[in-house]
């Protein structure tokens, strides 16, 4: 209490009582709820400890005579019942009020991210603002499951966000229940297969920096590998980053379109087994040709078919 009084409303390690520094408006609300709950708990605690210590010191056993008993004392019994109900009601009121605020998704968002949690990594799809139709993916950041489970940030996917912006998250899982947790948001939400969970945050100004992200639901044997990085950029840096990602995604799409056309051209010659044709084509084609040959060898009938095709 002294600590709280001495520092006023300032947010520091002591007054945050174990919570990380909040970087969103929503996290600030969570922090006040957390602090308020502790103030209430301390007030009750101090009252109860005070009464106990007072009784222990000043009402020790003085004689063999039984002290006056207060069982069935109506005012005291009523107090025992009413006071906890009042305390729980006050805590309930603030919790329900803040929960409603934290789950609001009405405000138009500046950035839409679809978070796909899977065993054992994350995929971040940046969507355009056609939210009602589910959103078109502009570009995507796919995490590769960390091979050995070490917390090395360079092997983890990074969620990039702009400061001073409203960000909307849609959470999806193709396998089991995960939980999307950014400790600096003071918030986590389960990612449930077959359910469209969503929330949004207002990132504060001056929050540029690097943060951590976690899966907060024991989702299986390699749950510990589900780590990710969070990077908050200034608006201008974020715009530059988005342009880069868009250009990269466009290039990839163009390349994919090219490789999709190529197999048709190389099918006849590639399956013929001439090796110099194979080297000319890219690796996917070469692999494709190899696997067809392997399949053909595996089954006697298939081998005949393959020969026929070659002819
Ligand atoms: Cu998980």
Descriptive notes:
The structure is a single chain. The chain is of the alpha+beta class and 311 residues long. The longest helix has 37 residues. The C terminus is likely disordered. It has three domains: 94 residues, no CATH class; 122 residues, Immunoglobulin-like (Sandwich), CATH 2.60.40.420; 62 residues, no CATH class. The protein is elongated, with a radius of gyration of 31 Å. β1 and β2 form a beta hairpin. The strands form two sheets. A five-stranded mixed beta sheet has the order 3-2-1-5-8. α2 runs antiparallel to α3.
By CATH reckoning, the class of the largest domain would read Mainly Beta
Enter the CATH topology name of the largest domain. Answer: Immunoglobulin-like
Overall structural class, as computed from helix and strand content, comes to alpha+beta
Q: What is Rg?
A: 31 Å
Helical content band: 40-55%
Second rung of CATH, namely the architecture of the largest domain: Sandwich
- SS summary, helix count: 7
How many domains would you count in the coordinates? Answer: 3
List the uncertain runs. Answer: 265-311
State the shape: elongated
Strand content: 15-25%
Question: What's the helix-strand series?
Answer: HHHEEEEEEEEEEHHHH
CATH homologous superfamily assignment of the largest domain: Cupredoxins -  blue copper proteins
Q: Which sheet architecture does the biggest sheet show?
A: 5 strands, mixed
The pLDDT mean sits at: 81
Terminal residue distance: 88 Å
Query: Which ions and ligands are bound to the chains?
Result: copper (II) ion
